[in-house]
Amino acid sequence: MSPFSALVIEPSPDSSAATAVIREFTDPGILPAPGGEVLVRVTHSSLNYKDGLAVTGQGKILRQLPIIPGIDLAGSVEHPGSDIRFRAGDAVVVTGWGIGERVSGGYAGFARVHGDWLMPLPPTLNARQAMTIGTAGLTAMCCVLALEDHGLKPGSPNAVVVSGAAGGVGSMAVALLARRGHHVVASTGRIATEGDFLRDLGAAELIPREILATPSGKTLDPEQWAGGIDTVGGETLASLLRQTRAFGSVAACGLAGGAHLPTTVLPFILRGVNLLGIHSVMCPRPLRDRAWARLATDLTPAQLETMSRVVSLREVPGLARELLAGTVRGRIVVDVNL
Ligand SMILES: NC(=O)c1ccc[n+]([C@@H]2O[C@H](COP(=O)([O-])OP(=O)(O)OC[C@H]3O[C@@H](n4cnc5c(N)ncnc54)[C@H](OP(=O)(O)O)[C@@H]3O)[C@@H](O)[C@H]2O)c1
């Protein structure tokens, strides 16, 4: 087998911290921390917030060392092992299920994964497009489906707000909501640099991040939003809850601004506002299939192109730091063969 590269997180020699190193392998059988018996030839992965934490050694994401991070991967089955559901050459995608956290993930030319985690690459997408979507897109779509399941419809007199809009999940959410005909308000800390990007994705209005991040001092604010998708947490999520109209819903999926939630119960008991938790990593298969069916058709190739850039494994550590600093636009796709 020809040599291939992997980005491996290894214990550092003095055990003080883990370090990210590029290693060359010729045998996929000796890759660390395999997750199953299906051998996948990986072509693309992506960089998510969690990968940023894993690669920079923050947030206690990695459950064992050495390990290959990367919570998403796309490629083709090389050897299905004894799993009769797959044949060599099948184009597949894996997002979440603990790859890149508990077991090795997508930052390598090969990965060994459990057959239950594999889903067929949707026929309308190539591997790069699937990884532009990745966990961020699945998360955004789970948010959209949760809002729709709780009554959100296009044409509402109120807008739908998205926080952290220029990030991976946020930009996907803006595009998905706009495509369905919602009036989308994008909250971002980067109007000056990313305003045009967000308008191109379909945002009808932009608001500075501080507006939602600043507490009003009240328990309820005037009703503004038909619904919200929050990637930020903290005061931002508390503001969305205070400002969502009666019987509207907020899908909470992130903590880019903090894990705390300084709210009262009043939005829930005086307005019937729904707080919908989103956990895409272990998303059950029926919901995952429903989400990917929509993702495969609701985003245009041009949008997926605009939203992403392709980088090599060697660029991942530097970009992981930029992502955690909140300066990355949209999605980063990792071509593991670059
Ligand atoms: N629940 C799940 O299943 C799930 C799945 C995937 C991701 N997530 C979470 O969702 C969040 C976003 O993930 P991502 O991959 O989209 O990350 P990302 O690409 O880094 O996007 C995060 C965005 O949040 C905003 N932001 C960053 N720091 C902030 C701060 N201190 N205060 C307010 N806003 C800040 C920035 O957007 P602007 O510059 O536009 O303001 C940034 O681009 C993360 O917390 C991640 O852990 C959860």
How does this model look, in words?
It is built from 10 helices and 15 strands. By secondary structure, it is an alpha/beta fold. It folds into 2 domains: 4-121 and 307-335, Quinone Oxidoreductase, Chain A, domain 1, CATH 3.90.180; 135-277, Rossmann fold (3-Layer(aba) Sandwich), CATH 3.40.50. The strands form 3 sheets. Strands 3, 4, 5, 6, 7, 14 and 15 form a 7-stranded mixed sheet that branches. Strands 10-9-8-11-12-13 form a 6-stranded parallel sheet, sandwiched between helices. Helix 4 (191-201) links the parallel strand 9 and strand 10. Helix 2 packs across helix 3 (168-179) and helix 2 (127-149) packs across helix 8. The radius of gyration is 20 Å and the shape is globular. The model has no long low-confidence stretch (mean pLDDT 96). NADP nicotinamide-adenine-dinucleotide phosphate binds next to helix 1, helix 2 and helix 3.
Distance between the termini: 18 Å
| Biggest pleated-sheet summary | 7 strands, mixed
What's the CATH class label of the largest domain? Answer: Alpha Beta
Global mean pLDDT: 96
